[in-house]
Design goal:
Layout lengths: L3 E2 L13 E2 L3 E6 L4 E6 L9 H16 L5 E6 L19 H19 L4 E6 L3 E2 H9 L2 E5 L6 E2 L11 H11 L1 H10 L5 H7 L4 E3 L4 H13 L3 H20 L2 H13 L1 H16 L3
Parallel strand pairs: 4-5, 5-6, 6-8, 7-9, 8-10
Antiparallel strand pairs: 1-2, 2-3, 3-4
This protein binds ligand LCMDX3IU.
């Protein structure tokens, strides 16, 4: 993927020179040190290998540019933040592909979860599974108050299982008992429920998600970076190390699990159901 610069937005000067890739738009504001990263992989921002790769490239570019201290993650696709992992990457492929794909999923989580940036999820659409995982890696989550925008780790509804580091991320956010129930039932929470259980930090009207994210960002960026970053690291490093210590085993576990005939059948049936639903 190549990073492309696009023309500055009207009346904005150099600080808003947008850049990004085909599937990840980056709207940086050097003056404030905040960049907005938008997933743009229509129709539902499914986390394809290309999107994961482009996301990692764009995130790394922002982390290496000391101008930026905070990133807001949001969607350029209407009604959907992200539909989660791209199911077509996990069925009908070969073990080598599954391994490559899962390594990219791990990489995205590792980079986001321990990022030195302040990360705020401006959740402006449905946020199941992998989309929910991305929002959980952020420091703060704001969800649009729309009953269609469900959020949760719903893997069991597909007949699959969220891996331990998905589980750990959820436990770190909503606690063990709430996670135990949510994961086993594959719960997708309504905005008010998500707020109540602590899955999101704020629920606001749809047209206020980005402005709310910007004002929360200002509050987080008022904290001296070094102190905040060391504290974030203290809170999250044990969780991250659990995966780092067994990344290859986790990949092998994924490949053997996802390659099972029964799992392949579940995923195919689930994809078919998604397509029928439109018919
Ligand atoms: C102990 C052992 C441990 C080992 C475990 C190892 C690994 C297993 C772990 C796996 C973890 C997986 C995490 C995931 O993210 S799996 C993906 C789960 N995602 C979902 O369940 C969401 C599915 N999608 C939806 O619910 C809806 O699409 C959504 C609400 C997001 C949007 O609805 P809308 O009506 O707007 O759009 P649709 O018509 O449903 O979809 C449009 C189009 O997109 C296709 N599509 C939707 N979601 C996905 C997807 N995740 N991947 C690929 N394609 C998707 C859908 O089929 C439609 O296609 P088409 O008909 O237009 O061709």
């Amino acid at each position: 993927a190549t990073i492309r610069r696009t023309e500055p937005t009207a009346g904005s000067g150099d600080s808003a020179r947008r850049f990004g890739t085909q599937r990840v738009l980056v709207e940086p504001d050097a003056a404030s040190g905040v960049a907005v990263m938008k997933f743009k992989n229509p129709p539902v921002n499914s986390l394809s290998l290309e999107l994961l790769t482009e996301f990692i490239i764009s995130l790394e570019k922002l982390e290496n540019d000391k101008t930026f201290r905070g990133v807001i993650l949001t969607s350029d696709c209407p009604r959907v933040f992200s539909a989660g992992l791209d199911l077509t990457e996990m069925c009908g492929k070969n073990p080598a592909h599954y391994a490559e794909y899962w390594k990219a999923v791990q990489e995205l989580w590792l980079r986001l979860y321990l990022s030195n940036l302040v990360l705020i999820a401006a959740i402006n659409g449905a946020c199941p599974a992998g989309g929910c995982l991305i929002s959980l890696t952020c420091d703060y989550r704001i969800l649009a108050d729309n009953p269609k925008y469900l959020i949760g780790l719903n893997e069991t509804l597909l007949g699959i299982v969220a891996p331990f580091w998905f589980k750990d991320t959820l436990v770190n956010t909503i606690g063990h008992r709430a996670s135990e129930q949510a994961l086993q039932l594959g719960l997708l929470f309504l905005p008010a429920e998500a707020l109540q259980v602590g899955l999101v930090d704020q629920v606001v009207p749809e047209d206020q998600v980005l402005s709310t994210a910007l004002s929360v960002m200002a509050r987080w960026m008022a904290i001296p970076d070094h102190a905040r970053q060391l504290t974030k690291n203290m809170m999250r490093k044990t969780t991250v190390d659990r995966l780092v210590k067994q990344r290859d085993a986790d990949i092998q576990n994924f490949v053997s699990f996802i390659s099972r005939d029964s799992i392949q059948k579940s995923l195919q049936m689930y994809l078919e159901k998604l397509k029928q639903k439109k018919g």
